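Budget justification note: compute hours in this period were largely spent on complex prediction jobs such as the one shown. Inputs:
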Amino acid sequence: MKARVLVRLKPGILDVQGASVRRALHGLGFGEVQELRVGKVLELELDGVVGEAARQRIEEMCARLLTNPVIEDYTVEVLA
Amino acid sequence: MNFGVVVFPGTWSDCDFHYVISEVLRQPVRYVWHRDRQLDDFDCLILPGGFSYGDYLRAGAVAGRSPVVEALPEFVAKGGLVLGSCNGFQILCEAKLLPGALMRNECLQYRCQSTHLRVENAETPFTRLMRPGQILKMPISHGEGKFHADPETLRRLRDQKQIVFRYCAEDGRVVKDANPNGSLDNIAGVINEEGTVLGLMPHPERASENAMGGTDGLLIFHSLLGSLVEDGSFLKR
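Corresponding output:
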């Protein structure tokens, strides 16, 4: 089965990378961009687990390695 | 005092630390591979700077879960001391041995420069030869050294004197202009509650001989040597 983890900086944490990309867009004439934040997508393919069990395993992976709870939030999407 | 210098794939300051400990301090030192869990021979372990595991995912994230780092809590509980510099600081935060996190520099630039540090806590095994408020000169070399912690954690760090070094101007003023990476509260180094694990972004090993432009980094090493002799743990081990 496939799953996707979306990791982003917590709200309120300054995203300097996002701010830099936003300034570049302004330079290209996209002045309407008010806010831009950069996150990351982790795509996983799992073998031998499905459904809720798979989601729990991924939650465990997020807690132990994939995300840093001091600065990041995440969402898990199970793609069947 | 037996030092161990931990080597991860991608570590780059290991030889510098090894050189300073063996050639400048004349102390026994050997390298520790990241898969080693057997740490009983050491009094102090160094986690040097570099780009462990390519800093993939987050700086220090993968190294923070490596066998040697997983063995650190037991090492520390038995009286060992741990010093993490640069990438080593990032690894200690990722492993939750130190609070907070290190994020991309606010200026977005990799900063390789000399900095001034103000000693905020001179009562640790790593700083006992310094004076409170003393100004040290040490280089930094990093792209992700902006210390971040939530307000509650920051309050605790202040209350418990866990902030050990802050970036300052040459005259000791802790001002925004002297902050090379946007670090919260100008924080350059923090220690754990027990005072046994220190992390700092600057490189003491690159300030340990006059030929390097200064020797303020040696104060950390000499503090360590004095600590172990004085509290007797060196003799007990």
